[in-house]
Design goal:
Blueprint: H1 10-13, H2 17-28, H3 38-45, H4 52-66, E1 70-82, H5 108-120, E2 125-130, H6 139-148, H7 153-167, E3 171-175, H8 181-188, E4 194-195, H9 220-232, E5 237-243, H10 249-266, E6 269-276, H11 293-306, E7 311-313, E8 332-336, H12 353-362, E9 366-370, H13 375-382, H14 387-395
Bound molecules: iron/sulfur cluster.
């Protein structure tokens, strides 16, 4: 039985005089280049409906100082290398046990077929999403890996990234879960960037009946260690938070502060994703409340203000309408595929790219196609000699965005 999760929203509907005064003073104290305190971030994220427009205006102004006039996206194919996973997150519709309908590990031929089809449609990113270390609990996965000729899922992932890099013009971006220092080094040799959602710093969500019950790879300290190790190795890294999984407003701010702290030390956080939980049938959290649109806007805006010089993404397919997110300080819509579904949220199709362009322009921004690695991190990757450097150099235009290809 899963808890019914409810964020403390008392302050979000109507603003009490004391909160209103605290909000106004936190807003007045905003100053470009000056870091925001935890207390100020909490006053901002707790703002009432009447104060929300001011918060959004501040966040949009901060975005415009960072990346004026543009919102980017990455044209990608989604490669669910395996949906077997040793974790059982309460909100996940992607994972399978080997005996479940739809359990699947892609073959090298399948990987290459999808990547080549994406290449013809102008994609530049091969997003590898997969369950975390399934071979540790499933003999069937160990057998599959033996048949394919690999010792572990990570060895197989490394080979598939290398295959895509060698055989196509796509650049791999793997999201394989927790990684050791050695595996970050190995995967960084075959992909210009990688990712791991921190999700939350609230370790109490590992308790029985909570979202991360029976999810050993969701221990916040372990995830922070992976992100920190990527920083030590200068690997451009995507992370983010997942809101609406039982965390509090304080947890959201603390998660953003943990990311800010790592970025201040290593400068490697290329992108922060603010993702909202969506309830789905057949998941343990099917009856848990979803975060409201207002919560999403407040979280994105505070994320932008806490991390003014970090690329900020919110997925358009998880909010309806999604246009308002452009007012909250994002500068990226994330990976969008003209070919493959969002296997993590299959019931929420990505918007058509032409529609996304029109709606982005209606908000006053130009839509631009980026690569999986953001422009400000490209020089560092190109400096490493080898195939990855050559492929990245060939894919990037003079602004570090995607060189547009003629599509089939
Ligand atoms: S969210 Fe990721 S780690 Fe959790 S069950 Fe799903 S695939 Fe596994």
């Amino acid at each position: 039985m899963y808890h019914s999760f409810q964020v403390t929203l008392t302050a979000i509907t109507a603003s009490a005089p004391r909160q209103r005064a605290a909000f106004s003073s936190a807003l007045a104290a905003l100053c470009p280049g000056a870091p925001i305190s935890r207390a100020s971030a909490l006053h901002l994220i707790r703002c009432g409906e009447d104060e929300l427009p001011e918060l959004l205006a501040a966040a949009r102004a901060a975005k415009e100082r960072f990346k004026p006039g543009v919102i980017t996206y990455s044209r990608k194919v989604f490669l669910p290398l395996t949906n077997l996973c040793r974790d059982y997150c309460g909100y996940c519709t992607f994972r399978r046990d080997p005996s479940d309908a739809g359990a699947h590990t892609m073959s090298p031929d399948e990987v290459l077929t999808v990547a080549r089809a994406g290449e013809k449609l102008g994609c530049t990113e091969a997003l590898f999403s997969l369950g975390d270390k399934p071979e540790l609990i499933f003999p069937e996965m160990r057998q599959t890996l033996r048949r394919l000729g690999y010792r572990s899922t990570l060895h197989y992932l490394e080979a598939m990234c290398e295959l895509v890099l060698r055989e196509t013009t796509l650049l791999p971006h793997p999201n394989p879960g927790l990684l050791s220092a050695e595996w970050i080094t190995r995967l960084a040799a075959v992909s210009p960037s990688m990712g791991l959602m921190l999700e939350t710093t609230n370790a109490s969500l590992l308790a029985s009946g909570a979202a991360h019950d029976n999810a050993p790879d969701k221990v916040p300290a372990k995830r922070l260690r992976t992100i920190e190790e990527a920083g030590k190795q200068n690997v451009p890294f995507t992370t983010g938070l997942l809101i609406g999984i039982g965390e509090s407003l304080e947890d959201r701010v603390d998660t953003l502060l943990a990311i800010r702290d790592l970025h201040e030390r290593y400068g490697h956080i290329q992108e922060v994703i603010v993702q909202n939980f969506r309830a789905k049938r057949a998941i343990p959290m099917a009856n848990s409340p979803e975060p409201t649109a207002g919560e999403m806007l407040r979280t994105v805006a505070v994320a932008r203000l806490l991390l003014p010089s970090v690329n900020m993404q919110a997925p358009p397919n998880l909010s309806a309408p999604y246009d308002d997110l452009a007012d909250a300080g994002i500068n990226d819509w994330g990976g969008i595929s003209p070919l493959t579904p969002d296997y993590i949220n299959p019931e929420k199709p990505w918007p058509h790219l032409e529609q996304l362009r029109l709606r982005t322009e209606a908000k006053g921004f130009t839509l631009r196609q980026r690569l999986p690695v953001y422009p400000e991190f490209i020089a560092g990757v190109i400096a490493r000699p080898g195939l990855l450097s050559e492929k990245l150099r060939a894919a990037a235009n003079d602004h570090g965005l995607a060189k547009l290809k003629r599509t089939a």
